[in-house]
Amino acid sequence: MAQEPQTFFDALAxxxxxxxxxxxxxxxxxxxxxxxxxxxADGDTGTNLYLTVESAVGAVEAVxxxxxxxxxxxxxxxxxxxxxxMAHGALIGARGNSGTILAQLLRGMAQVLAADGETAHTDxxxxxxxxxxxxxxxxxxxxxxxxxxxxxxxxxxxxxAAAAESEGDCATVARVAYEGARTALAATPGQLAVLERAxxxxxxxxxxxxxxGALVETFTGQTPGGATGPASASVPHARVGHGGPAAxxxxxxxxxxxxxxxxxxxxxxxxxxxxxxxxxxxGPAGPxxxxxxxxxxxxGPQAPGxxxxxxxxxxxxxxxxxxxxxxxxxxxxxxxxxVVVGGDGLWNVHVHVDDAGAAVEAGVEAxxxxxxxxxxxxxxxVHTTGAERPLGERAQxxxxxxxxxxxxxxxxxxxxxxxxxxxxxEPPASGELVDAVRRAHAHxxxxxxxxxxxxxxxAAAAExxxxxxxxxxxxxxxxxVQGIAALAVHEPxxxxxxxxxxxxxxxxxxxYAEVVVAERQSWTMAGICQAGDILGLIDGDVAVIxxxxxxxxxxxxxxxxxxxxxxxTLVLGDEAPASVADHLETRVRESYLAVDTVVYRGxxxxxxxxxxxx
Length: 614
Description:
By secondary structure, the chain is α+β, with helices and mostly antiparallel strands. It is 43% helix and 18% strand. Strand 4 and strand 5 (346-353) form a beta hairpin. The longest helix has 25 residues, at 45-69. The model is unreliable at 226-306 and 378-392 (pLDDT under 50).
């Protein structure tokens, strides 16, 4: 269905563009993956671009939801609010080389569009300036830019937009930028021999064309080339080698576990600390190409086996600007395909190296890296715990779980689960869950979302994984304590259906609660709360409003145990005093005979305390 066209580029236009771009990349994802031969032929550029934009969409929607929940007089989000959220969402969710560059493109646009923070909208000239700054900042973020890549396509779009700025029409600027990008994309095989040999255009540039096509649709209500769908004109060389599909530039198509530690430098949930060492074996790839070779570039090396590094290393980094400058120099000596994007203390780092440990250690020296991901181009993810398994050797069964804090991530990992970290205010997208299922590398997967709000996201991920041949069972756990109960009875040797039923029963028999701090005044089932009040939620509903953490938690626990119980699980957040757990343990021991208590440290899990009663 055609979108209502936008005359100016305002907050609503940003929201519409993000949504349309996600849809366009969703249609194009498989085909972009198929033509991904450069910088590394790992077939994931389309997927990485999709996940990056999906994260941007989530951030923009959260901004709109926040304003809709506020007082009517506050109005909707400003242009600065929307583009700022878009850029931040893309930054924290950026995946792969092309996704990282796209995140910088969006950040570059946001820096122009949100310059004064008060402008309600911009016109064609403002949009053109934003596209120019986006292209320039993305090129600056890449250590060794190479033509024939997404950088070339972005520059061509900006050049074309500059010629139309004076007309002051966003639709015109968007359309000429799209056409300029499309023309540049068609020329990429002539700029990179690896593309010419494969008979394809650059996959990252192809994705950018799809994103710019969505920008045109935002202002016109029509996709480029037609009112109801993508244009059909194809681009020279835009085919997949070896008889693959044609690609046009317009559209493509255990409960007794001890307190666990998180393996350094491997899981998303982990945050490295100064002094930690991260190491990974050198891969089979030969020496990195020397400067001037086609493989030496900021957009990536040759494919594995042709002189490229063995590992892709990515992480988010909290660091000062001057430390990041030193980090760039250090990583540039370690490998290639170096892209560092971001600013204001938060950065996304991407590099291809042979020594993955050194790349992470460089991040530790610069600041605080987290969401560390190490991928071997030949074998998939490399986990430095030594549990590496060749891709051909799938496990029979695995558990994938969403967890709200680093401590719980360690606990779940100790019990054998593959984890996805959900930081406060940053719920994982379906693509992240699908990726975790792939990392689990098993024929059968039990998926634990551990959050009622993630039910639909987890269901979408399960459906996608099934199309890839994985048997997936979704257990609708609504809290991490229910997930702990399910893991405690998990037995991989049992028949799959029996194991799922047993885990589901254990989760369902576990009542859950959490103690949190109220962020604002609001109506609840227990009355009106004020910002700063301590809230006790039982099974998702506010049951207690108090002023003291310990007293509120005790009231919640008493209410839960009034219905009986044999085991109490307490998961303490970083902001909760340790005395709370001691107080509750004493309360259970003195008042409830034959009820056991187990305590875990959850880390930065959002809630002060999670409580489970089985």
